[in-house]
Amino acid sequence: MSVPFDEINAAYLSVGEDLFGSEDLHAALGERDPDEAAFFALVLVGAEIENGGFAQLFTNSTGDIFPDAIEGAERFGLTDHARLLRDAESELFPDGVPADQRTRLQHWETLADDPSVDDRYDGLDPRWYALHDVLEQRLLEYARTRTGD
Q1: In 1-149, which residue ranges form alpha helices assigned H by DSSP?
Q2: Along the 149 residues of the chain, how does pLDDT read in single tens digits?
């Protein structure tokens, strides 16, 4: 386990202490300090994509905070991440990413039957993975503001 991950994880746990188990995480993030909300959303969404790609993000409950991740990427100056998240939305959810998991799952099942989905989907995950170091560095910078390092 690397030191940057430890620092990011410690800050994530600290920021999320009262968010874990929230009935409406998107609403709870809206009531937080904007930097905390950005950090929390980016850590959570990034972890979902790193673990199972955009498919995992959109089919898990974390997809509920998709708009928070875009806002967070913009707030933290991660324009390539914000652009990629918007590209994923336009490629996979042209009418917008549904706010609730059940609707996203229904859309995803329909999408999976579309023969062109692989062409639209295949490039998204590698683009995200290529930006990993930039995201990790920005998250680490924020984490260190919380600990004074």
Answers
A1: 3-16, 25-30, 34-59, 66-75, 79-92, 101-112, 117-121, 124-130, 132-147
A2: 455 779 999 999 999 999 988 999 999 999 999 999 999 999 999 999 999 999 999 999 999 999 999 999 999 999 999 999 999 999 999 999 999 999 999 998 888 888 777 777 778 999 999 999 999 999 999 999 987 65
Could you give the CA distance from residue 111 to residue 12 in angstroms, rounded to a whole number? Answer: 33
Structural domains of the chain in order of their starting residue, each with its CATH number: 3-147 (1.20.1420)
Residue 131 identity: L
Read out DSSP for 22-39? Answer: -S-HHHHHHTS-HHHHHH
C-alpha distances (whole Å) from 89 to each of 1, 23, 77, 84, 100 are: 32, 24, 19, 9, 15
